[in-house]
Amino acid sequence: MHNVRVCNAVRKGGAMRVRTPTELGALVRDRRRDQGLSQEALATRARVSRRWLAALEAGKPSAEVGLVLSTLEALNQEVSVDDRAGTTPTVDLDAVLAAVDEEDR
Amino acid sequence: MHNVRVCNAVRKGGAMRVRTPTELGALVRDRRRDQGLSQEALATRARVSRRWLAALEAGKPSAEVGLVLSTLEALNQEVSVDDRAGTTPTVDLDAVLAAVDEEDR
DNA sequence: GCGACGTGTGTACGTTCGTGCACAATGTAG
DNA sequence: CTACATTGTGCACGAACGTACACACGTCGC
């Protein structure tokens, strides 16, 4: 028989920004605990060792990205990458250059 | 004088889902090219070697996650992690269990 | 045709990886 | 208080890392 624990609440997580390996590790730990999983249980699902998972949760920067993605998938988490807010120009340069060309005639 | 190239268009990138190292590599290459950068230029910004960056773009799963995050930051990209759509239960288990308890009385 | 540039990839090197195992510390249930 | 589960972390091992360098190839501008 499995040792199953019922969580107090299972929340709808908002998207979490991740900038550093430490933030990533904390996120993995939080999600794992939210889902009532031990390190051993998640490690098995993600096909990594518990030793490795412990190091990831502790913020190890040299963890393999493939194993990280596998671990997030085992937690039913999806990763998305987007332009950082406020940094991407929203101008069609071709259109601008074409307009300049028109002016010069 | 810098060798600067003007892109055909600079688009407001939508968020890209990333599930595998290959998808990640392709995203890095696309963003780099969108911004008119060479591998050498991005590698310098991200403080990695060009050799490593080429391997990342080719989908190397064992790339270090810390270097990956550094590279995405150099591309002004932010990473976010969220519950996979349609998989997160939105039920307060405590409430459910409490309700079951009430019924049994 | 030539030079410059960008990129894919092989090699060598010193260093560190992921894994398995073990042990200690902590918290919890009975 | 004891037993158990969980977690942090050190160590040994075979394997692979990131970096620097080099070379080949394709593309482009002159």
CATH architecture descriptor text of chain A: Orthogonal Bundle
Task: Give the overall shape of chain A, derived from the CA principal axes.
Answer: globular
How many helix segments of chain A? Answer: 5
Question: Which CATH class of chain A is shown?
Answer: Mainly Alpha
Number of strands of chain A: 2
Please provide the ordered H/E string of secondary-structure elements of chain A.
Answer: EHHHHEH
Please bin the fraction of helical residues of chain A.
40-55%
Uncertain ranges of chain A: 1-13
* Oligomeric grouping of the chains: homodimer
Structural class of chain A: mainly alpha
What's the structural domain tally of chain A?
1
CATH topology value of chain A: 434 Repressor (Amino-terminal Domain)
Mean pLDDT of chain A: 79
Largest sheet properties of chain A: none
The CATH homologous superfamily of chain A is called lambda repressor-like DNA-binding domains
User: Hey, roughly how much beta strand do the residues of chain A contain?
Assistant: 5-15%
Question: Could you characterize the architecture of this molecule?
Answer:
Two copies of one chain form a homodimer. Chain A is mostly helical. The first copy, chain A, has a single domain (1-81), classed as 434 Repressor (Amino-terminal Domain) (Orthogonal Bundle). Chain A is 50% helix and 10% strand. Chain A contains five helices and two strands; from the N terminus they run βααααβα. Chains A and B meet through strand 1, helix 1, helix 4, strand 2 and helix 5 of A and strand 1, helix 1, helix 4, strand 2 and helix 5 of B. The first copy, chain A, binds a DNA duplex (30 and 30 nucleotides) through residues 3, 38-40, 48-52, 54-55, 57-58, 62-64, 67.
